[in-house]
From TrEMBL:
The chain crosses the membrane at residues 27-48, 60-80, 100-120, 132-158, 178-203. InterPro entries: Cyt_c_oxase-like_su1_dom (IPR023616), Cyt_c_oxase-like_su1_sf (IPR036927), Cyt_C_Oxase_1 (IPR000883). The lineage of its organism: unclassified sequences, metagenomes, ecological metagenomes. GO terms for cellular component: membrane. It comes from marine sediment metagenome. This is Cytochrome oxidase subunit I profile domain-containing protein. Pfam families: COX1. Gene3D superfamilies: Cytochrome c oxidase-like, subunit I domain.
Length: 222
């Protein structure tokens, strides 16, 4: 049907319903790691050329973190299970969840928080504020999301073997993964605390800056 024909094109990691005609598609999707690596490299090169003197260091950290986490989440973790020989077994397991969590956090969440961190001081007409708390929220959220990704990756690997290779029942497999889910819950708590800390850093006014801002005028790159 036409739906079967379109599915592999729209979702490069969904190959269960693909026909032999579309089998080469996963090979092309492996190359998506290249633009993510180039974007990450570009971000670090631009910061290096600017001599790291941007006054809003929190926004700078979120920007670099966004490109880095997106590279690992969408690029590396996507590459790990994109080939149809692997994806046939792993699709829909916790490996997919691990890839989705890290890639969406890097490509969308961190990018939006970088824009908030950059724009809010200008919109509220005051210098960058609560940068230490803002950067602490970055490390808390990013660390929690990274730990969650590793936990889900290990859980997905076990799930793939038990459910897709051995053929155990879904609920029996889920019960055996309870320890991983508890660790995932702990990582989620860290992310929520980091998000609340970010909101506090954005909305609560400080009387003075903790971090000495750099020069207002950026240094031109060479």
């Amino acid at each position: 049907s036409s739906g079967t024909m379109v599915t592999p094109v729209l979702s490069p990691r969904s190959h269960r319903s693909s026909t032999p005609l579309f089998m080469p598609l996963p090979i092309f999707s492996t190359f998506e790691v290249v633009p993510f690596f180039l974007m990450m490299s570009f971000a670090f090169v631009m910061v290096w050329k600017g001599r790291k003197n941007h006054p809003n260091k929190a926004a700078l950290l979120w920007s670099l973190g966004s490109s880095t986490v997106a590279f690992f989440g969408a690029g590396v973790w996507g590459f790990l299970h994109t080939l149809h020989g692997v994806n046939f077994y792993s699709h829909g397991t916790q490996i997919t969840a691990a890839h989705g969590h890290l890639s969406f956090y890097g490509a969308y969440v961190a990018l939006n928080l970088a824009m908030f961190s950059y724009a809010m001081p200008m919109l509220r007409q005051r210098a960058p504020y609560n940068q230490v708390l803002n950067m602490a929220s970055f490390w808390l959220m990013t660390g929690g999301m990274a730990f969650m990704t590793f936990v889900l990756t290990f859980a997905g690997t076990i799930q793939t073997h038990m459910q897709r290779v051995v053929g155990d029942y879904y609920m029996d497999v889920q019960e055996s993964l309870s320890l991983f889910y508890m660790m995932r819950f702990g990582a989620g708590v860290a992310v929520v605390i980091g998000a609340l800390l970010f909101l506090y850093a954005m909305l609560v006014v400080r009387k003075e800056e903790i971090i000495e801002p750099g020069p207002a005028n950026p240094v031109p790159g060479e």
